[in-house]
Amino acid sequence: MTVTAPTVEATAPAADVTAPATEGTAPAVAVVAPLVRPEGAESAPAVSPEEAGVQVDGTVPALDDIFAESTAALAGLQSYRYATTFSFTSKEGGDAESGSIEVRGAVASSERQSMTWKDLESGDEFGIIRVGARAWLREAEEWTEVPTMVADAMSQGILVYAPAVGWGTFAEELQATSTYVGLETVNGTPARHYTSTYLGWSSSQRDEVTDAEGDVWIAEEGYPVRYRFAAKTTSEDGSRGTMLWTMELSDVNGQVSIDAPE
C-alpha cells in the first residue's frame, strides 16, 4: 500500500482572506447514555445504564442512536480543529513497506475551512483553503489561487481522514461492537469512553481487516472528540500488515480563524 499526494501546478498569486471567529454555540444535543455490559459477560449484549445500575444525568436516547446521532452532533458544530494520523506497515516475504500521513484541518464555518496533508516519512505536503467560492492551494511553500473544482479534486482522496467524512462512514456500525468504559476528560471536554472490536472501520482501504480494536470518546454533547483504531490486515497477494488511525478534535465552537497567506 502506498500513500501519495496528487499534484497541481500553481498559476496565480494568492489573495488575503481572513475567516473571523464564529460567535455563538452549537445547537443543543441530547446527552447520550453509555453502553454497559454485565461484568464477566463479554459476549452479552449491551444494556441500558438503568438496567446496569449506572446513574446517567440528562436525556437518555435509544441505545442504537448513540453513535448514529453523533454524526449529526458533529455536523452541528460551528467551528473546531482536528488532527488525524494514518499509518500502515505491510510485509510479504523479506520485503517490508510502510507509510504514515497526517491531516490537519480547521472549520471556522461551513464556508471557511482549511486542510493540510503531510507525508510524515518523506515530508511532502500540500494545503488547501476554501473561503466561499474561492480556493487556494499550497505546494512547495507557495500559495496559488485555484478553481474550486481543483481544490475539490485535491481534497477528495484525503477527506476520508477528516472527521466530518471519515466518522460518518462507520459511526452507526460501531454500536453493536462497543462497550462502555467510563466518563473521562479529553481535550478539555467531558466524554464517554467506549472500546470496540468493529472490523469495518477501514472498509475504505484495499486490505482486509482481520483483527481490530478501537477506542472512541463521545463528548457529552454528542460529537466524537477522539477515536483510535488499530488493526491487523491481509492483502490479496498474501502480505500481512498493520494499520493505525487516530483523530483528535479540539477548539470546539472556539476562536478559529482561517487566513489565506499573502
Helix content: 10-25%
- Give the spatial strand order of the biggest sheet: 7-6-5-4-3-2-12-11-10-9-8
Question: What is the count of helical runs?
Answer: 4
Contiguous runs where pLDDT drops below 50 for at least 5 residues: 1-63
Description:
Helix 2 (66-75) runs antiparallel to helix 4. The protein has 262 residues and is mainly beta. Helix content is 12%, strand content 42%. It has a single domain (49-252), classed as Clam (outer membrane lipoprotein receptor (LolB), chain A), CATH 2.50.20. The protein has an 11-stranded antiparallel sheet with strand order 7-6-5-4-3-2-12-11-10-9-8, with helices on one face. It is globular. The protein has helices at residues 49-52, 66-75, 148-156, 163-170, and strands at 18-19, 80-92, 95-109, 112-119, 125-131, 134-139, 142-146, 178-186, 189-196, 208-219, 224-234, 240-250, 258-259. A hairpin with a 4-residue loop joins strand 10 (208-219) and strand 11 (224-234). Mean pLDDT is 76; it is low at 1-63. It has 4 helices and 13 strands.
Task: Summarize it.
The chain has helices at residues 49-52, 66-75, 148-156, 163-170; strands at 18-19, 80-92, 95-109, 112-119, 125-131, 134-139, 142-146, 178-186, 189-196, 208-219, 224-234, 240-250, 258-259. The chain is mostly beta strands and 262 residues long.
